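Fold it.
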Amino acid sequence: MVKFDIVSGFLGAGKTTLVKRILHSLDTCEKIVLIENDFGEINVDRELLEIEGFEVYELSNGCVCCKLKGDFLLTLKNLLSQKIDRIIFEPSGIFILDEIFDVFKDFEISGKCFINSVTTVVDVQNFSKNIQGYSEFFKNQIRHASSIVLSKVQFVNDYDLVHVENSLKSLNETAHLVTKDWAQLSTTDIKELINGSYNCVSNRPKQYLSHNFDSLGLKTSKNLSLDQLKNILEKCKKGHFGALIRGKGIINTGSQYLEFNYVAGEYSIMEGSEVAEGIVSFIGKGIAKEALASAFV
């Protein structure tokens, strides 16, 4: 039977970073493929994972729990006709985990594959903002997790960390909770997340949530300096382009490539890997798409 591991989490929590850690921790004898689902038109994470040499199947411009559910089903059946040992699935940050149970009611899938683990990444720094602003998406991902991994713990104090831990335990008292700074996570810690402890039985009524989010994705050949990129992201913080929740991309400066991440009004920029074209993706509400696109092209 093929193992099916889910790494979920709200927008910007750090899912792709954790997926990379898991991939580097697994037995190299295993045949592993990834399914990447991005709500936006451009899947930046797929590009980043392929650069590192991983085999990635992409589902973009929607969420597999609604618009792309049929495409996801076909992709999964196609993969299960091949000789593989494990599938790692990184859904969109606004994914409803209930829908996975429907997929596994299909005997063509459940006869060859089983849900091995569900790991949910929770951004401690933006916990209050996410649980208040996007409560049902956020709570759904937490309630169905077999493991919960806290990210950005180095940026909060002990009091706030305990508050988050207690809130999570009230939503899911059985999940394995990982509260270490990610720099201290060992290979053993990572492997424990996918140890096959998932019980997919759910007594809660199925949720149907509206995905009333906007997205903008584009490819660009325009060169931007570091200062120009910072200026764009500062405008994002100030709401010039709408209520942006998540942004990511790789930009060519002409002399190097820069990878940026934007989450809930904060951003980081680091040296990136070479890509054929610059790639940019944003998710939010009320996005001023023309203005934002013109900043990058």
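Residues 33 and 87 are 5 Å apart (CA to CA).
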